[in-house]
């Protein structure tokens, strides 16, 4: 339902402009990873106050990593739009060893929704380079358990920001393929069942490939 709402909202914003400019819908997947981060809890009985966590991406495990993007190109060089990314992070076994955590992950996504601006450049040998950046919200599915209490729900946990760079290649007038690097930072403060909060700042690095359709 979250993904459907995002795509419907993006279309409602962007499609009325299609008559006068280019609207582009993009779908992508790829490989994403996340470096270690500290996980803090406050007012949460049965959880450690600070745990250093090594995250695993497992991009191709169900549910897989993917993204949906809607862009309104106001000119040949400038565009803006919405980008929903379904990122995932799992704490590894070693990070949980010796702690009360039985589950510590954001795997039905460490989802982010950002409003982005893009700049594309003159094509070079058929490839069109572009860069982009944006800010928005982290909307993860928080999955935390210590055996006595368990949290498993979507929450808005804080701000998110992203930057990306890549290149696209036109297949025809309406369809193109692209590859890019995408960096995303999110601040996450989640409410835990049983009381208290869990917070962590997570960085993800992704190599994406995808397809775009222009209208």
From TrEMBL:
Chain ranges of the Outer membrane protein beta-barrel domain: 11-215
* Superkingdom, natural source: Bacteria
A UniProt-annotated Pfam family? OMP_b-brl
Hey, what's the signal peptide range on this chain?
Answer: 1-21
Keyword entries, A-Z: Signal
Membrane-spanning intervals of the chain: none
SUPFAM superfamilies recorded: OMPA-like
Give the protein's recorded name. Lipid A oxidase
Protein source organism: Loktanella salsilacus
């Amino acid at each position: 339902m979250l993904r459907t709402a995002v795509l419907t909202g993006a279309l409602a914003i962007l499609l009325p402009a299609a008559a006068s400019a280019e609207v582009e819908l993009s779908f992508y997947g790829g490989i994403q990873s996340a470096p270690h981060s500290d996980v803090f809890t406050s007012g949460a009985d049965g959880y450690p106050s600070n745990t250093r966590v090594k995250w695993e991406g497992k991009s191709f495990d169900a549910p897989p990593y993917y993204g949906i993007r809607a862009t309104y190109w106001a000119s040949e060089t400038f565009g803006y739009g919405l980008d929903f990314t379904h990122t995932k992070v799992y704490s590894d076994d070693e990070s949980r060893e010796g702690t009360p955590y039985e589950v510590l992950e954001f795997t039905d996504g460490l989802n982010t929704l950002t409003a982005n601006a893009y700049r594309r450049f003159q094509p070079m040998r058929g490839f069109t380079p572009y860069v982009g950046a944006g800010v928005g919200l982290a909307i993860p599915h928080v999955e935390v358990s210590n055996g006595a209490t368990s949290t498993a729900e979507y929450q808005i946990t804080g701000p998110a920001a992203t930057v990306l760079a890549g290149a696209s290649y036109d297949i025809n007038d309406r369809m193109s393929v692209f590859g890019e690097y995408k960096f995303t930072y999110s601040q996450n403060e989640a409410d835990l069942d049983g009381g208290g909060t869990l917070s962590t700042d997570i960085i993800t690095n992704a190599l994406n490939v995808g397809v775009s359709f222009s209208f």
